Description:
Blueprint: H1 4-13, H2 15-18, E1 23-28, E2 33-38, E3 42-43, E4 51-55, E5 61-65, E6 69-73, H3 76-79
Antiparallel strand pairs: 1-2, 1-6, 3-4, 4-5
Amino acid sequence: MTPIQELLSRIRWDPDFAAATFAIGYYDRVADRVITVPLTDVAFPEKSRFALEITDSEGEPHTIPLHRIRVVYLDILSALKDGDSYGAQAEHGRPV
């Protein structure tokens, strides 16, 4: 299994690999479930190597520790159900 830091780094910096569309699923303690968001909605703060930032549909930023990432999907269209947006729970998709 590839460490999450290594996988995210490859997605960000390898143009051939990054040509695909990705989504991440992270465990939300409050909702007690895995939340799936497109990787395009994720920011990587320069100050933190062990967390990422997601802005929800209300514009509120959330810092997510990397250890909460449970899955990375290679095809976001199959990871998110039709009509779902931020916070959708993945039921399909191809984990990387």
